[in-house]
Automatic annotation (TrEMBL):
Organism the protein comes from: Novosphingobium capsulatum
Entry protein name: Methylmalonyl-CoA/ethylmalonyl-CoA epimerase
A GO term for molecular function: methylmalonyl-CoA epimerase activity
Keyword Metal-binding among UniProt keywords: yes
PANTHER family: BLR5325 PROTEIN, METHYLMALONYL-COA EPIMERASE
EC number: 5.1.99.1
The entry's keywords: Isomerase, Metal-binding
Pfam families: Glyoxalase
Source species, domain of life: Bacteria
Lineage per the UniProt record: Bacteria, Pseudomonadati, Pseudomonadota, Alphaproteobacteria, Sphingomonadales
Domain VOC: start-end pairs: 5-132
Signal sequence range: none
Length: 135
């Protein structure tokens, strides 16, 4: 089998500049580059935080995110890509920081198998953060 590693996740948003600012302010990403994809009619940016990248698309004439895609338990009832997930060392500290930054906290899970949360970016896209349970 060919070797491969994760490169990036992508989200579509209605306002590229607002999304770049949100990913910088709330999650600490920096702008890596901006470009236009002619075939998709998309103004696009790649933001980066260490080895993590998000590709953000502002596509001409794109539809808004459907309401069911904004809530994790409803979102998983529709086939397709769901979200990117990142590990945090302390979920409670992360939630406190997100609340302080005014992030839209969509869902918090605290179960015997682990705990995590979903936040929504400025366009409603879900992003998951998990704290690994202690061994």
């Amino acid at each position: 089998m060919a070797d491969f590693v994760f490169h990036h996740a992508g989200v579509s948003v209605p306002d590229l500049d607002a999304a770049i600012a949100w990913y910088q302010r709330v999650l600490g990403f920096t702008l890596e580059k901006r470009f236009y994809i002619e075939a998709a009619r998309s103004h696009t940016a790649m933001v980066r935080k260490g080895p993590l990248r998000f590709e953000i698309f502002e596509v001409e004439g794109a539809a808004l995110l459907p309401e069911d895609r904004r809530h994790p338990p409803r979102d998983v009832k529709t086939h397709g890509n769901k979200h990117a997930a990142f590990q945090v060392p302390d979920l409670d500290a992360f939630l406190a920081e997100m609340a302080q930054k005014g992030a839209d906290i969509a869902f918090v899970v605290r179960e015997s198998f682990g705990k995590g949360c979903f936040i929504r970016d400025c366009a409603g896209n879900l992003i998951e953060f998990v704290e690994e349970p202690e061994a």
